[in-house]
Amino acid sequence: MSEVMIIGIAGGTGSGKTTITDTLVERFGGHVSVLHHDNYYKAHHDMTFEERCLLNYDHPDAFDTDRMVEDLRRLKAGERVACPVYDYTVHDRSDEMILVEPTPVIIVEGILIYADPRLCNQMDVKIFVDTDADVRILRRIRRDVQDRGRSLDSIINQYLSTVKPMHEQFVEPSKRQADVIIPEGGQNLVALEMVVQRVKAHLESVT
């Protein structure tokens, strides 16, 4: 058994990926590190804010997945990586970096992580969080208004123009790559406990 276990957590926007990720981090602390695909959105410093607002952020091409694949490979090899940070309020990569330490368990989280075979091939456990579309859009509205300073109109326009069609084209089909499908995400306490026990067993085997 490899000493490093890589867990993918995918699902549509607002599905509950973060709840599962946060639960594992809280439970296992420094034994777990996280790479968020959202932090690997490509930089667009050359564009105006208005131009950046019109980009499709739900297509695989919006991400610098090459860099994420390389960072994941380096983490698995025991190297610390400097992960970029994305600023949702300006639709652009910030000047900050996050240092991510190599740990026995690495979580890769994002809506489109299973759309790239290179990421999939590095994962030991692939989880897909499956939540009804109406629940997901309501969660997205609440999050984007409260945390990202977005207007209701902008959220609805983005959802109808890119989020929903890209979910149907890329996110939903990628569910076929998953080993485990968890309905209702972090609300599914039975499934969540099974994931916790899987991580616990791995840590006990390598520590």
Layout of secondary structure:
Blueprint: E1 5-11, H1 17-28, E2 32-36, H2 49-53, H3 65-76, E3 81-87, E4 92-100, E5 105-109, H4 117-120, E6 125-130, H5 133-148, H6 152-174, E7 180-183, H7 189-206
Helix pairs in contact: 1-7, 5-6
Report on this model:
This protein is 43% helix and 21% strand. The protein has seven helices and seven strands; from the N terminus they run βαβααβββαβααβα. The chain is globular and about 50 Å long. It has helices at 17-28, 49-53, 65-76, 117-120, 133-148, 152-174, 189-206, and strands at 5-11, 32-36, 81-87, 92-100, 105-109, 125-130, 180-183. Strand 3 and strand 4 form a beta hairpin. A five-stranded parallel sheet has the order 2-5-1-6-7, sandwiched between helices. It has one domain: Rossmann fold (3-Layer(aba) Sandwich), CATH 3.40.50.300. It is of the alpha/beta class and 207 residues long.
Keywords:
207 residues, alpha/beta, Rossmann fold, five-stranded parallel beta sheet, two-stranded antiparallel sheet, 7 helices, globular
